[in-house]
Amino acid sequence: MNNTLAIAQREITDRRFVFVAAGAFLLLALVVPFVPGVRSGERTAALVVGSLALALNFTLGLAAILGSSIVGRELSDGRLSFYFSKPVAATSIWWGKLTAALVLIVACFTIVALPAFVVGSTTAVRRWVNTPEEMLTTASMVIGGAIALFLVAHVLGTFVRSRSVWFLFDFVAASVCGVAVWMMGRILLLGFAIELAKALAIVVAVLVAIAVIAAGAWQIARGRTDRRRSHMELSRFLWAAIGVGLLVISGYVMWVVAVPVSQLTNPEFLQASSGSWSMITGEARNRGDYRASFLYNLNDRRSLRLTGVNPWNFQFSRHGTTSAWMTRTGLSFVRLDVPKPEPTLTRVTGGSIIALSDDGSRAAVSGDDVVAVYDLRSQASLGSIRVAQWRHAQFISRDVLRVYSGASIVEYDVRTKTLRNIDPSNARRLAGTWPLRDGRLLAVENRETASVLRLLKSDGSPIREIVLPEPRVRWTRVTESLNGIVSVVLTQHTVVVDINRGVILRQEPRMLCQAGSVGPNELCLWQQRLVIWNPATGEKRPVS
Amino acid sequence: MTGAAIEISNLTVRYGSVTAVHDVTLTVPRGSVYALLGRNGAGKSSLVRCLLGQRQPDGGSIRAFGEDVWTRRASLMQRIGVVSEEADAPPEMTVDQIARFCSRLYARWDQREVDARLDRFEVPPRTKFGALSKGQKKQALLALALAISPDLLVLDDPTLGLDVVARKSLFEEVIAELADRGITVFLTTHDLAGIETLADRVAIMKNGVLVVEEELDALKARFRRIRFAAQPDAVSETYPLSLEDIFISVTEGAQR
After folding, report:
1. Is residue A360 part of a domain?
2. B226 Cα to chain A: minimum distance (Å)
3. Residues A325 and A397 in one domain
4. Grouped pLDDT means (10 residues each) for chain A, 544 residues
5. How far from A200 is each of A143, A178, A253, A506, CA to CA, in Å?
6. Structural domain count of chain A
7. Cα torsion at A107, A112, A114, A115 (round to 10°)?
8. What pTM did the predictor assign?
């Protein structure tokens, strides 16, 4: 410890001229308020900004110079042998140099930024130094950045000055580590794990900082005065430490990503209105905010892991034979009526997928007030229309897309490239309704005594009303099956309604189901667990 | 004290594909003055760096006072004074400041001896090390190295850059005095004349290989020049070669 302090003191003494330079920058900061053009009312703010800007630049510059010279230059100049011919441990040499660098960085930042901290509380300059907490945050950020720069500069300084072929190894190792970090970040962000990615980025940064500090000690202890061996030892330790750390982190990321469908908590799900496939997405315990997504077959419990799927940007075709979803990389789709479904990424990009044709061969994609129709197999655009504020869309046939916008309903025929307006007088009245495949409309309406399900013609004229079991419905989702049966998901119940006969076939309290397909299975959330529900028998089986 | 001050066994040092020191084995007895000679690039400095624990050998081992110099360097340096070939002290510090710094690192430190020696060498203590002449730098480093009363003094080409007076002072006054006090001296040098009367044992390196390693007297006895008689009936006689002649003979030609 005594030797470490002695070396730190010597290093500071050797570089005492930086205090003079810091003093000169301090004087420069004091001159800033009196530069022509600064008004008298702005002088305090100018002093704060000038002082902080100069402190930032000086500190970062000093950190880069110290980092590249404190070991690397002494190695190349052959002056590190001065310490090694003394009875001091290699660790004392490294820690002494590191301590000296930290003292110089902190002291010089404090000197140059002093005016900002002294008068900062009297002026509001972007909330940098108004309160002690802000001052601490600002100082921590600058000094933290400077320390990071110092460590990076130390590594690069050693590498460059050694003029060793190990530089090639470093380049390869840095590239591999960079790609590994990028892949881990990508895979997490595709699962919307922004907070987890941030946390792991901090862990990686701390890991790298610790690795560089420990590698520096190892470099001095093993490489000593030989600059090439010093480089070799630094490289070996640094990349091994970072590699092991990244392996552990990537192992955790793989574990996060490999979450089984049965461990999802508070999942969201969509079920195809026909067939047995559903899409389940959700987070899991100890896996941060990573959202795993699956295509899940309710009949045989097959699952297909998906990446980057947002449930609000996912569609099943009405026949249940195809699903499609939009990610940052483009539109993907998967055929579900084959023995081994495999996702296909298309060249189609855009804001979101808003509808799939019944047979799943065509997709409507919206973006920037334009709705375009694509053929999924050929990935060719079949046509597009400009629609402001679309709300909902559906294919009423293979060639005709009906789009509900805020003010109107339009039908676009991709075969003839014609656009047809539906009676606009009904548009306002039709807002808030749920369109059925045959053009009829469903609406859930709260009345004083009860909530009702209203079946309307396509022009909005009523057909019949069915009283629902909840008096006040706050949230509703209606999905139509192929045979005129709809599931109505209410706040506390899921009810199955035959809309042609106007009767409620079945109701399940405290169960939320998504789909409209009545039997043999539906995917539902019951007592916070995903269950496969058979509406016909009422049987509930856990998802696994 | 008994045993060897330095034991080098099968030392090998490589720089990439170049072998600087190849399988060198030598022993330096305690209290002796040991001179390692060799032309530039012979491997002397590599050997000294290994001896001081500054470089890990690629093969073999070096022990000082029975301890491995690579693993026990820090503690061994309490007993070893070093004057390196390159004046490696911080150039911005004065000799005084360097002495104060060193005094904090050693258990034994005699500042009065440093002051006296600097005074004798006429090295200004308050001058920055970088501003000293080459010879003064060496003298300052020597003064610092001797302040710890070392058991072993390692001098890597100590007379390089010294004028004749300083050279004489170093060899005759310092090394001889140290040797008299039983301090082991290991030195590498080009100044063969200076050590001829001091060295007990001499080693000569050539292209990384130790080609000569024996007592100086024995070496001189082995290398003799024949003076042929001018008259046919006169007797030819032999006389010893100088160390310089032996060195040239060994490093430029085959060993006789």
Report:
1. yes
2. 46
3. yes
4. 90 91 95 86 86 94 94 86 92 95 96 88 65 85 95 93 89 96 93 93 95 96 90 95 96 94 85 84 90 90 87 86 89 92 89 88 88 92 85 84 78 90 58 70 79 83 86 63 66 80 83 59 79 75 82
5. 22, 14, 9, 48
6. 3
7. 180
8. 0.79
Which residues form the domain of A352? 308-431
Tokens of A286: 């100890």
B76 neighbourhood in chain A, CB within 8 Å? 87
Tell me, yes or no, whether A411 lies in a domain: yes
State which residue of chain A sits closest to B92, comparing Cα positions: A14
Our CA angle for A167, A168, A170, nearest 5°, is 60
**Domain annotation covers residue A408:** yes
A5 and A36 fall within a common domain: yes
CA-CA distance, A112 to A19, in Å (whole number)? 10
Give whole-number Cα distances, A224 to A3, A410, B153, in Å.
Answer: 17, 78, 21
- CA A375 to mean position of chain CA atoms: 30
Which pair of tokens denotes residue B103? 């005094």
> In which residue are the tokens 């940052």 written?
A328
Residues of chain B neighbouring A228 (CB-CB closer than 8 A): 15
Nearest residue of chain A to residue B52 (CA atoms): A85
B interface mutation test: which of A18, A77, A83, A84 has the most B CBs within 10 A? A84
User: What is the sign of the dihedral through the CA atoms of A99, A101, A104 and A110?
Assistant: negative
Can you tell me the distance from the alpha carbon of B213 to that of A341, in angstroms, rounded to the nearest whole number?
Answer: 81
In a domain? residue A252 = yes
B54: chain A residues, CB-CB within 8 Å: 81, 84-85, 224-226
CB contact under 8 A, A88 and B97: no
Residue where one domain finishes, among candidates A399, A431, A463 = A431
CA-nearest of A112, A114, A2, A22 to A66 is A22
Mutate one of B55, B75, B156 to test the A interface: name it (highest A CB count within 10 A).
B55
Q: If we measure between CA atoms, which residue out of B62, B34, B67, B29 comes closest to residue B47?
A: B62
Which residues of chain A neighbour B49 with C-beta distances below 8 Å?
Answer: 81, 225-226
Mutate to test the interface with B, among A11, A12, A86 (most CBs of B within 10 A): A86
* Burial environment of residue B33 by CB neighbours within 10 A (0 to 12, 13 to 18, 19 or more): buried
Taking the C-alpha atoms of residue B196 and residue B160, their distance in angstroms, rounded to an integer, is 17
Assign residue A415 the CATH number of its domain: 2.130.10.10
- Contact between A381 and A373 (Cβ < 8 Å): yes
